[in-house]
């Protein structure tokens, strides 16, 4: 069958390569260039390298715990049961994971993991090592790759997805479309995501009427450099022994959670933001106890970037702040990537597979991309489409030209609304205001005829339209969830106890 994969991060590359190996005719569309996106930026590693006393069952428990019990046990089981094969597949693809003295893959520790089980490459360059290896494998495959192609909308005929329409109006027909376009970090002004992460796949799915869920759960990474351009400082640094200190030098996380700096990300991020607001000064990440030699050896990418910026982190604590990092929600899928629309599949951050719940466990995202990317490819030949028990069908979103550009809309304005009202800490009034503002920006212009199909636009206009659609869906989902859960924190709403927490 002819398979169209949209997106070339770890999930899209895995799906394309696996489908190609299974004999499908595969076409891969890349918005920018191979090697762009979030995968190449991933520092910490990939979870699932189990050592003595560890197991998939324990990894599953940690995943459910971090997700505040909101994860899907079936999806989590698929994730952890596929971990060993996924890491083996990456090794076979040429990924050179860092090794311990005995030759085994070295295992790192990150927040909310009960044991060290994170495989890493090049110290803190795991994503780049994986991306480079998979792209090299791609170049020797028969996958047809088209770079610089912006997928704008899904083609739907008689209720079935049959391809995509690109920004220039070209139609790419396919028997199956796999969305692997990543997340939507650019909804927020402060993010670890690259410029191209504008929710394109989720917006396409929404416009086509596919079911989405859990969009209210946006993870904010707690340790992003607070000076200059945003730069992620991996959670693995805290796993190696770095601590968080307030402006007075106190380790405040000791009183915030039993796991202190290695508490789930949502807990750490809110604590960092709260302490910074209280003191009017950024929180500091103190890695000085690790020493210059170990920091340079274990975290060469971070070390080089901080030195380039004139920061000697072996001598001085580093100012950090939370920033939007990872979207746990997305297009609803089963464990094989099927969506509510026949012919449409989704994988990676674009999908809501159910593994992350309300808060992603560190280093599970790369694992999800490999495990579920392969599962999508393996299931493509299935003639029967599973009837998903979904949370209703997604809303049919209005035409792209419904965006009211004269009503105050701009990307900067949207990002301000999302950061201030749909960010780390949310209120009833703020969420209601955000939805109302986003509604006004989506209102059609009076007396403006609507084209029958979306017309070609500039990439920036298309991205803005996609961000607006996803922003409205996220704010609406956050307003509808009146309790606090994981990364969705509503001020004055009760917070449920963490699964397994004392």
TrEMBL record:
Region (Disordered): 440-461
Enzyme Commission designation: 1.4.3.16
InterPro entries: FAD-dep_OxRdtase_2_FAD-bd, FAD/NAD-bd_sf, Fum_R/Succ_DH_flav-like_C_sf, Fum_Rdtase/Succ_DH_flav-like_C, NadB, Succ_DH/fumarate_Rdtase_cat_sf
Pathway noted in the entry: Cofactor biosynthesis; NAD(+) biosynthesis; iminoaspartate from L-aspartate (oxidase route): step 1/1
Biased composition (Pro residues): 446-457
Enzyme type, top EC level: oxidoreductase
Domain of life: Bacteria
This protein's UniProt keywords: FAD, Flavoprotein, Oxidoreductase, Pyridine nucleotide biosynthesis
A Pfam match: FAD_binding_2
Domain FAD-dependent oxidoreductase 2 FAD-binding: 2-366
Stretches assigned to the Fumarate reductase/succinate dehydrogenase flavoprotein-like C-terminal domain: 411-491
Location of this chain's protein in the cell: Cytoplasm
Cofactor: FAD
Reactions listed under catalytic activity: L-aspartate + O2 = iminosuccinate + H2O2
PANTHER family on file: L-ASPARTATE OXIDASE, L-ASPARTATE OXIDASE, CHLOROPLASTIC
Family statement drawn from the similarity comment of this UniProt entry: Belongs to the FAD-dependent oxidoreductase 2 family. NadB subfamily.
Purpose of the protein: Catalyzes the oxidation of L-aspartate to iminoaspartate, the first step in the de novo biosynthesis of NAD(+).
Protein name, as recorded: L-aspartate oxidase
Organism in which the protein naturally occurs: Microbacterium suwonense
């Amino acid at each position: 069958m002819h398979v169209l994969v949209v997106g070339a991060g770890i999930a899209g590359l895995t799906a394309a390569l696996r489908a190609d190996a299974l004999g499908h005719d595969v076409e891969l569309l890349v918005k920018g260039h191979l090697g762009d996106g979030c995968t190449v930026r991933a520092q910490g590693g990939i979870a699932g390298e189990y050592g003595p006393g560890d197991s998939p069952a324990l990894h599953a428990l940690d995943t459910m715990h971090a997700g505040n019990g909101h994860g899907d046990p079936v999806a989590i089981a698929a994730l952890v049961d596929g971990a060993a094969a996924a890491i083996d597949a990456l090794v076979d693809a040429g990924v050179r994971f860092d090794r311990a003295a005995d030759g085994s893959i070295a295992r790192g520790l990150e927040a909310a993991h009960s044991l060290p089980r994170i495989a890493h490459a090049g110290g803190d360059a795991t994503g780049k090592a994986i991306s480079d290896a998979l792209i090299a494998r791609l170049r020797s495959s028969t996958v047809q790759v088209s770079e610089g192609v912006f997928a704008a909308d899904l083609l739907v005929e008689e209720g079935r997805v049959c391809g995509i329409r690109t920004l220039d109006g070209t139609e790419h027909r396919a028997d199956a479309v796999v969305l692997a376009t990543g997340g939507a970090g650019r909804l927020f002004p402060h993010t670890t995501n690259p410029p191209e992460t504008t929710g394109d796949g989720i917006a396409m799915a929404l416009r086509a009427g596919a079911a989405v869920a859990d969009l209210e759960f946006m993870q904010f990474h707690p340790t992003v450099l607070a000076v200059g351009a945003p730069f992620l400082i991996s959670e693995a640094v805290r796993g190696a022994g770095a601590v968080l200190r307030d402006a007075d030098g106190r380790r405040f996380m000791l009183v915030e959670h039993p796991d202190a700096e290695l508490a789930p990300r949502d807990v750490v991020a809110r604590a960092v933001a709260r302490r910074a607001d209280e003191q009017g000064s950024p929180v500091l990440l103190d890695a000085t106890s690790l020493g210059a030699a170990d920091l340079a050896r274990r975290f060469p990418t971070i070390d080089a970037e901080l030195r380039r910026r004139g920061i000697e982190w072996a001598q001085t604590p580093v100012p950090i702040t939370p920033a939007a990092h990872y979207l746990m929600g997305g297009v609803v899928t089963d464990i094989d990537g099927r969506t509510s629309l026949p012919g449409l599949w989704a994988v990676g951050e674009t999908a809501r597979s159910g593994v992350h719940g309300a808060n992603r466990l560190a280093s599970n995202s790369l694992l999800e991309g490999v495990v579920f990317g392969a599962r999508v490819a393996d299931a493509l030949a299935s003639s029967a489409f599973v009837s998903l028990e979904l949370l209703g069908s997604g809303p049919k979103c209005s035409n792209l030209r419904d965006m009211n550009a004269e009503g105050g809309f701009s990307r900067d304005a949207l990002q301000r609304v999302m950061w201030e009202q749909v960010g780390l800490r949310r209120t009833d009034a703020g969420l209601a205001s955000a939805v109302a503002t986003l509604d006004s920006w989506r209102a059609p212009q009076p007396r403006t005829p609507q084209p029958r199909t979306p017309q070609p636009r500039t990439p920036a206009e298309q991205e803005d339209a996609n961000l607006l659609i996803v922003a409205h869906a996220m704010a609406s989902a956050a307003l509808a969830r009146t309790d606090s859960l994981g990364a969705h924190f509503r001020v004055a709403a009760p917070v449920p106890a963490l699964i397994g927490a004392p």
